[in-house]
Predict the structure.
Amino acid sequence: MAVMNVTPDSFSDGGQFYAGTSLNLDSILAAVEGALADGATLIDIGGESTRPGASPVSQQEECDRVLPVVEAVAARFDVVISVDTSSPEVMRGAVDLGAGMLNDVRALRRDGALAAAADCGVPVCLMHMQGEPASMQQKPEYRDIVAEVKAFLAERSAACREAGLLDNHILWDPGFGFGKSLSHNLQLFNALPHLAETGYPLLVGVSRKSMLGAVTGRDVDQRMAASVTMAALAAERGAAILRVHDVRETADALAMVAALKKEKDQA
Ligand code: 7PM
């Protein structure tokens, strides 16, 4: 899954599609074309900056950012478009225009989001986050990070089924970097095989995140090796979808993981 942030201010790829405050659709289409050529099979389009400390955007602002992009990408490419949003308006609008998946860092907890997602009838990624982006990294605390993330995702999955979503339209994401210390992130990553046992496909997003900076000491633009390594390890540990910035390098790593698995399965 290739990340396309259509925000003027994202931490790892800030404003790459903007000239000042105006969005350049052609530059997004070129980036999507590149990501597909590099091996992406899903494109994740997001208009809300969820970096730690980010201020919230209005639903109108988010619609204005995201919907034209979804429309243009859907018209031009045969690829599954995922929309990174917590807003029911954006969900309905995006799926009307051709989006095939919803990706919500708030796991459909916003008013109206469960009903909107159920009406949309597409797969939904439920992500765990402690707190809200503005303050989530100030004091993350858990008794048992793995048990708590798992219980949260199980509760949200039950709420989804009650709202009418199909069980096989639910994906789980532990939410790396969202209200978690380095130790919390590492514990969760080590628990991926345990989470995979639940049967819900796992989506993992660690690309360029600060947990990699904390270990390697590298700035955000120097985290590719760490990102690709973690993507390969996540795949090995049962992740179904990797949300990444460096598509070509990740695709190579995943090809190697797949080759090893194929050889093993034949033995
Ligand atoms: C800190 C945390 C800074 C996250 C920036 C981000 C995920 C996501 C994002 C994820 C799913 C980024 C982001 N991260 N959706 N949206 N999983 N499902 O790296 O890990 O772009 S935003």
User: Anything to note?
Assistant: The longest strand covers residues 42-46. The chain has a mean pLDDT of 95. The pocket of 7PM is lined by residues 3, 5, 11-12, 50-52, 84, 103, 105, 125, 127, 173, 175-178, 203, 205, 209, 243 (CB under 6 Å). The domain at 2-266 is CATH 3.20.20.20 (TIM Barrel).
